[in-house]
Every structure is written in C-alpha cells, then in structure tokens.
Amino acid sequence: INYQSKVMPHREEQIARLQRELSDLKRHYHQQRVRASITIPELVQYITSHSNEDALVNPTKDNPFSPKKSCEVL
C-alpha cells in the first residue's frame, strides 16, 4: 500500500501532462494555416505601407533619449 501511495501521484502527474499535451496537439491540428507564398507578400506590403510611421525606420528629431551633444573647451 505504501508503494502505491508513492507511485500514484507520479502517475497522476504523468496522465495530467499527457492530457495537456493531447489538448495542445488537438488545438494545433485544428488551427488554420496559410501558405507562406500568400502571407509573405501581404507582410511586405504592410511593412512598406506603414514604414513612414515606424520610429525605427524614421526616427523623430526630438528624441528625449538621444545622447546630448556638447562641446567643451578646456
């Protein structure tokens, strides 16, 4: 009886883990997929149409985090 009390929690954990894994696999199986040949041109078009709003492509002139330029004469 003592042996079963030690084995059962491990087995229950294993069953719970396998049930979660099965649930994840079912969810991934039913997930709709789109071909890369369709999504890549759409992604490129989105990026190019929004590039003027992108702060990494067009940084603002008044960036408060930019290092201050100063010239000191000693």
From TrEMBL:
Keyword Nuclease among UniProt keywords: no
InterPro entries the UniProt entry points to: G-protein_gamma-like_dom (IPR015898), GGL_sf (IPR036284)
Among the record's GO biological process terms, what is one? Answer: G protein-coupled receptor signaling pathway
Q: Where is this region: Disordered?
A: 51-74
| Organism encoding this protein | Macrostomum lignano
Name this protein carries in UniProt: G protein gamma domain-containing protein
> Which parts of the sequence belong to the G protein gamma domain?
11-74
Coiled coil spans: 8-35
Q: Which keywords does this Swiss-Prot/TrEMBL entry list?
A: Coiled coil
The organism's place on the tree of life at top rank: Eukaryota
* Regions crossing the membrane: none
User: Secretion signal: which residues?
Assistant: none
Which Gene3D superfamilies does the protein's record reference?
Answer: Transducin (heterotrimeric G protein), gamma chain (4.10.260.10)
Pfam families documented for this protein: G-gamma
Asked if Coiled coil is a keyword of the record, the answer is: yes
